[in-house]
């Protein structure tokens, strides 16, 4: 690695079971930071650091370097914040991993399935981080767990507005996170489950179904179990969605981060064989904002665009025999117009075809995403940003509420 020319370097000597927390300044112009392990052993969210290798962290990163045995590290560049903390819940998290590993061993022995774990709690308590930690620890001992990402606000696997599942085959990359090679992604369309709770629950069931099918044919996947990351919305329908998820996936363990009432409610409402565990959050967890970047490209495409869910209408106006529920899963054709601009569209993997093919669209996974940047209704042309291969693999698009504007 090239030396970090001209950057200030600060050395930290960490005692065992402590962590160095640092944040990289946010914003386009901000300077990246580099981290290097000099002596001892250390890990970042469950992934071990190699010695004498420089790891780069971009603007806005919030990182903890934890050591079980003690270590010294160098930081190159000027962090927004950097401090060492002795007060971390890592030992509790490790014990949680050990308990799950015990369950996997037992599953192996008794020819049963491994633990299905749901991680819940309000936003910014470190749910995603705990999931990453448990998954990385599990692969490090040879397991093949599945990550189920139900946080439509901040998906670690795909774009926001989707739910997904990913088989984890190796620990998360220190800089990039988990390698996302063949995720199973479904279109939800907005960043809160509340915009269409019926669809959200339906997609949760779809993922659970696919995961269970995989477990039937793949013993390693079955023993590895899954770790489900959920949304921070834990009241009302958000709470009901958690209960639904627990039943759809038949979860065995629920980890509640930093929310005693939620813990008590879930203990009361879930079947008695589900182990509900309350865990503290790490003092290092900080609020974050996320930006995604895309390759830019123009393209002329002929497509069909739908929105999932019709606006609700008064019960008295519903056609006979139709309930309010039916409207939430309905596909509504969208006429391309200027108001499409900046919307994110999911490319559905549903077979192209006429009206008849519309049936499976809600339940079909997504195979890519595009962002509309410009619509010319007269020439019937729209410009899109698309990281997907050209030409588009399919021509059915689903519109999200989410908009994306590239400020570059
Ligand atoms: P949630 O999933 O509950 O919204 P995250 O796991 O995404 O929360 O954590 C929020 C942010 O805090 C992330 O940027 C993560 O990198 C950071 N973070 C988590 N744990 C620590 C820690 N111990 N020290 C410093 N930053 C942390």
* C-alpha-based Rg, rounded: 23 Å
Give the N-to-C terminal Cα separation: 29 Å
Largest sheet: 13 strands, mixed
Chemical compounds bound to the protein? adenosine-5'-diphosphate
**Portion in strands:** 25-35%
**Anisotropy-based shape:** globular
Query: For the residues shown, what is the average pLDDT?
Result: 88
Could you tell me the number of beta strands? 22
**SS-based class:** alpha+beta
- Counted by DSSP, the helix tally is 7
Helix content: 10-25%
Low-confidence stretches: 290-301
**Helix and strand succession?**
EEEEEEEEEHEHEEEHHEHEHEEHEEEEE
Task: Write a structural description.
The structure is a single chain. The protein is built from 7 helices and 22 strands. β4 and β5 (47-48) form a beta hairpin. It is globular and about 70 Å long. The chain has helices spanning 90-110, 127-140, 197-217, 219-224, 236-248, 260-269, 324-328, and strands at 9-14, 18-23, 33-40, 43-44, 47-48, 54-57, 62-67, 71-76, 81-85, 116-120, 146-149, 162-167, 184-187, 226-229, 253-257, 275-279, 304-308, 331-333, 343-348, 365-376, 381-385, 396-403. The protein has 408 residues and is of the alpha+beta class. α3 runs parallel beside α5. Strands 10, 11, 12, 13, 14, 15, 16, 17, 18, 19, 20, 21 and 22 form a 13-stranded mixed β-sheet that branches. Strands 5-4-7-2-9 form a 5-stranded antiparallel β-sheet. Residues 21, 62, 64, 123-129, 282, 284-286, 288 line the site of adenosine-5'-diphosphate (ADP).
